[in-house]
Design a protein that fits this description.
By secondary structure, this protein is an all-alpha fold. Helix 1 packs antiparallel against helix 2 (76-113) and helix 1 packs parallel to helix 3 (118-155). The chain has five helices and no strands.
């Protein structure tokens, strides 16, 4: 084998090794981009859940402060059940909010400033914590609905209580279009009643 053939073989081997390194680098960059999208997905979801949980926790606290407005017919058992469910709703939502806030702050920080492999650790940790946060938020939401249901049953007449309870259950189980329809139905009914009252008043005036 001549010297030229040896040089050509060495050059070809070097080029193959360089191509292999370039392919490995491109693969790592693609995987890192996918991990970054996963990180953004979990971070945005945690922020959304944290905001909603903070709102529900505030509503639950307002419900606790309204216990002095109960009617005299309300039994101590009903008050106790309402307070217990409302405290559970507030506590679960506060726990969900705190965990979501910590994850949305610490997860990206670990991915950006951690040692090698921190992106994988951050994404896997966020995926695990996100399940826990979602379960806490779902439990807090159910307790909040149950608390509102108890308040409706205790504070209003039975006819209005049944109607409001059915609306609450409809919000809880209905899909998005039906939920929107249930939301607009009371407003439409009120507008129709006002229109009828106005028409009747004009007819009497004439």
């Amino acid at each position: 084998m001549t010297e030229g053939e040896l040089l050509a073989g060495s050059w070809l081997e070097t080029m193959l090794y360089a191509d292999k390194q370039a392919l490995e680098t491109d693969l790592k960059v693609c995987l890192l981009a996918i991990r970054e999208r996963e990180l953004d997905f979990y971070t945005q979801n945690c922020r959304s859940i944290g905001t909603s949980a903070a709102l529900l926790a505030g509503f639950a606290y307002a419900g606790l402060s309204s216990t002095s407005d109960f009617s005299e017919d309300t039994t101590e058992f009903s008050k106790g059940v309402f307070l217990t469910v409302t405290v559970c709703a507030m506590s679960l939502n506060i726990a969900s909010m705190a965990a979501a806030t910590w994850c949305s702050m610490l997860g990206p920080g670990l991915a950006l400033r951690g040692p090698d492999g921190s992106m994988d650790r951050a994404v896997e940790g966020l995926a695990l914590e996100y399940r826990v946060i979602f379960l806490l938020f779902a439990a807090g939401l159910l307790c909040f609905f149950f608390s509102a249901l108890l308040l409706v049953i205790d504070e209003f007449e039975w006819v209005l209580s049944v109607v409001l309870a059915l609306l609450l259950l409809g919000y809880l189980h209905a899909p998005a279009p039906l939920t929107l329809a249930l939301t607009l139905a009371p407003a439409l009914a009120l507008a129709l009643a006002l229109a009828l009252a106005l028409a009747l008043a004009l007819a009497l005036a004439l």
